[in-house]
Structure formats: C-alpha cells, structure tokens
Amino acid sequence: xxxxxxxxxxxxxxxxxxxxxxxxxxxxxxxxxxxxxxxxxxxxxxxxxxxxxxxxxxxxxxxxxxxxxxxxxxxxxxxxxxxxxxxxxxxxxxxxxxxxxxxxxxxxxxxxxxxxxxxxxxxxxxxxxxxxxxxxxxxxxxxxxxxxxxxxxxx
Length: 155
Fold this sequence. Notes:
- By secondary structure, the protein is mostly beta strands.
- Helix content is about 5%, strand content about 50%.
- It has one helix and ten strands.
- Strands 1-2-3-4-5-6-7-8-9-10 form a ten-stranded antiparallel sheet, with helices on one face.
- The chain is globular and about 50 Å long.
C-alpha cells in the first residue's frame, strides 16, 4: 500500500457500507482509471488500505489492465472458499473449487486460448492426488503423469 499514486499501481475507493457495517470497496488502475475489480465486500477497516484478501467476503472479480476478465474467486472470511476461475487475455485457463482456503476436487486447465482442455488435476485438502493431461496439438495425445506433474505441480 502506498499513501499516494504509484505508476503501474492501483487504488481503492470506498463505495459505502452494508447494513452489517462491512465496507464495499472497488479497485482501479492508477494509470488508466479502469476498474481493476468489481465492488467487493471487506469485513475490516484494515482492508481499506490493503489489497490483501484477508478480509474479503463474497465474489472477488479482477480485470487486467486492458479491461478483460482476469479472475473470479469466491471468498468467505478472507479465504478462497468455492469457485475460482482464472483467465488470460480474456480466455478461461483454469477452473476449480476451494474448500477452507485449499484447492479441493477437480481443477481443469485449458490451453490454446481456452479452446482445448489441457489437464485435469484432482485435489484433496490442498494436496494434488490425481493427474490427467493432453497435448494441445491436433492429436490431443494423453500426457504421462510425470509430464503433467512437471507442468502443473505446485512448488
């Protein structure tokens, strides 16, 4: 957080408060004034000067500098909890669910500008437990478990 404008950064506006007293905020890119997020509910005053999701509640929807959808994530009490969808250049590249802040269940990854399914990774309580993947060429050849792990394994 910076007290003043910073090139390439973004700023937060307080839009109002909910009946429960939570804050409704929205973030904007400093250089263009374009929205960086949709309005978001934050549950603590500290979030007014922080771009952390520690106090987020509800859908967090982010946009890239060109105004294209970049991310949609459900939050509950500051943790991802529910659906999370990531986009690159406006194309969906991953989709899955969080449970109590950890990836859970099947996550799908797309390549080729969102047109082809590239991998499906299974998570249980934040741990990767299964892997399936395919090449992005016309053959859609299945990848070995080792190839999928090498490309998608979390450090």
